[in-house]
Amino acid sequence: MFNTPWMPILRSLLRHRALALLIVVEVALAFAIVANALHLIVRLADDLRIETGQAEAELLTVELRAMQRVEDAQPLSNEDLRRIRALPGVRAASITSQVIYGGSSNSSGVHIAPNGAGQRLMATTYRGDEHLLQTMGLKLIAGRGFKPEEVMMRGPDASMPSIIINRSMAEALFKGQSALGKPLYVYGDKPSTVVGVVEQLTRTSPKQRRDAHAMLLPAAESYRSGKYLLRVDPAQHAAVAKAVEALIPQVDNRRWVHQVRSVSDMRSDYYAKDRAMVGLLAGVCAALLLVTAFGIVGLASFWVEQRTRMIGIRRALGATQAQITRYFQAENALLTGLGVLIGMAAAIALSQWMRRDDLPMLPWPYLPIGAALLLLLGQLAVLAPARRAARVPPALAMRA
Amino acid sequence: MFLDHLRSAVRSLQRSPVLTVLMVLALGLGIGACMTTLTVYRVLAADPIPGKSDVLFDVQLDAGDLAGYAPGQEPMYQLTRFDAEALLRDKRGLRQSLATGVDLPVQRAGSNERPSVEPSRQTTTDFFAMFNVPFAHGSGWSPQHDADQARVVVIGAQLNDRLFGKGHNSVGQELTLRGERFRIIGVLRPWQLAPYFIDLTMGPYGRNEQLFLPFSTAMGLKFGSSGNMNCWGDVGADGPGSLQAPCAWLQYWVELKSPAEAPAFKQYLERYSDAQRTNGRFERATNVRLRNARELLEFMQVLPPEVRLQTTLAFGFLLVCLVNMAGLQLAKTLRRSGEIGVRRALGASRGTVFTQFLVEAGLVGALGALLGLLLSQFGLWLVRQGPSEYAKLAQMDGGILLLTLGTGLLASLVAGLLPAWRAACVNPALQLKVQ
What we know:
The structure holds 2 protein chains of 2 kinds.
Chain A: H1 6-15, H2 17-48, E1 59-66, H3 73-85, E2 90-96, E3 107-111, E4 120-128, H4 132-136, E5 140-143, E6 162-166, H5 167-173, E7 183-184, E8 192-198, E9 214-218, E10 227-232, H6 237-251, E11 255-262, H7 263-270, H8 272-306, H9 308-316, H10 321-354, H11 366-390, H12 395-399
Parallel strand pairs in A: 4-9, 6-8
Antiparallel strand pairs in A: 1-10, 1-11, 2-10, 3-4, 5-8, 6-9, 7-8
Chain B: H1 2-15, H2 17-45, E1 56-60, E2 79-80, H3 81-90, E3 95-108, E4 116-123, H4 127-130, E5 135-138, H5 143-148, E6 152-155, H6 157-164, E7 174-177, E8 180-188, E9 211-214, H7 215-220, E10 230-231, E11 247-255, H8 262-278, E12 289-292, H9 293-299, H10 305-335, H11 337-345, H12 350-385, H13 398-424, H14 428-434
Parallel strand pairs in B: 4-9, 6-8
Antiparallel strand pairs in B: 1-11, 1-12, 2-11, 3-4, 3-7, 3-11, 5-8, 6-9, 7-8, 10-11
Helix pairs in contact in B: 1-12, 2-10, 2-12, 2-13, 10-13, 11-14, 12-13
């Protein structure tokens, strides 16, 4: 570092101001875009890993349709479930008011005092019977699941004596205390006692808010009001789907299976756009870095060519090959470094501008990471021209 | 003269083929990316109903309760059935309609085949005229049909083609909707609103409604609804669809004669809201919204944010490609200083040298633009294969095509200015001396 001839480098760069400036601008622009794109990629990739607390790999959803409105939906649904649970490979089955990644999003206000008084928070509502907890594969960290006698059948005057809430809800409502046994009010003035707290339960669209509140309510759903959720050995998904399609019309032939989907597929669809975006961003970054590298190679080659005679003279005067190589590497580091410095300001400005799309500010670690990336790129790109320069024979200086 | 320049430009480009290919490739990539994203942007940001988007207004009233209420907050997007029907009875606009989505199993009457489930819309008589819905056969229904809960239905072109054969006039035929018989009174021509601004509760793109039936009839038959429903307080025994239920789930649109009537109509809405507050139905302070179609789309941020991000990214990329091209061109120019010196000494004027280098840059630009055009067709194809709801809409039109070629040329000329100017500044005497 100390015997790098910084002053001559600087002087020669100043002689090619326009060219040097273009390289600096190119590096600065590339840095600003790549730093922000990397930030977005990391954020999206983070979203793709969100855990929902459910046994996603095992879950199948079944949606029924009917030719006409059937009035006695509940007994039919109970019979469906009884037969589904008897199928080989089915570990648990229930009907839930909404399914994760299912598109709909239903939430209710929860109060700690009756009749809408006191603190209220909004929580995603999953209604289902005593099998729902086990079907979803949720992990209880306190308490128990619903008992069959707690499950409400549909009717004008029904109440829900118990409720299961997620950890974030328990922490928000009962800071520090145990939530078990506490009354909550969801609909009107009848209390529902917290009987269980689950480790993790997200909204149906989990990427919008990860710390969201969610709860299970003990209410029997029917094929009309909800979707069947089946926890099935993944190896048996196809067989069970077929069996269910045959079984539903056997129970009542006015209905049929509209759609069977695995929750894994639904997750994949739900994140398809994000995956595509990650691919796009990564592609743009790669193309950008490639173009920048080509630019550096092109300009460095030109410089080497221009200074062939100068290199020859230096070699004749005793400069080693390594010294010549280092000269061009140092020159490149100077230009790229300057580009990166300007690029940092540009990156922050770009990030500021993108905030109108509700994107958070660029965190500072991306600045050194991007800087290292571009400096490395510059060194790699200049390597071949610098080597070529080092191989210039000293005799060349004599020939002119 | 120009042809001479062109010929020497081609020769010059051929002399350093690798550099030329790299420049054209980078420029093509940049232009291709820009045009792809710009096409998507333009399609999605277009006026959804040209000529009418400033006279069609979405109505919002604040009917919610006081739990968790913050004064001045955005009122609910939809209306309660009570309010929507009350405004509809008042008929204060040129035309007005209430509507909500529903998914209905449908089959030809008497058919034994399993019905298909069609996204449908339950609405009122003015709907078709308000939104320029084009009819191939028949017409919409009358106010009398609404009043009588008539079993009539208007079907879309796609459903008509599938059930009755392409272009068939099926007016007068019967359909079974969820077990109930309906008579077809109208068949639409292919029709698509993009975005589907009249109902933004089920995503702005992709919902393709094929059945339209009177709201009153659907309510009478308890067909239910699909989309978003927001309830508060005691829903009551008759369910959330009943007239008195505290649930907001209907979109209400009004067409005014001119945008100038909007303030008066808004005052009328405020008076209505005040009256509801006085009689105890509304608990919140009067807070109405009357946005036209364009304002609503803007407010609801219907343009997917990723589209803007992609466009920004693509233009950034193009900019880098241009700077890159300027740098490489400049290096090439400087390398040829000797040659330029000779030409200047032999009598070529500064202008000639300048023009020649500019033509060379323009040639690179033209080649880059052509490549960009090809790449953007490929890019749009990729978008259409992609997972977005708006994927199908991504089509290039003549305007974008011209824009592509123009951008390529213009951008490369701008990038070529500095090198060309430097070339023109070459001092012949100095160069000849070095030679």
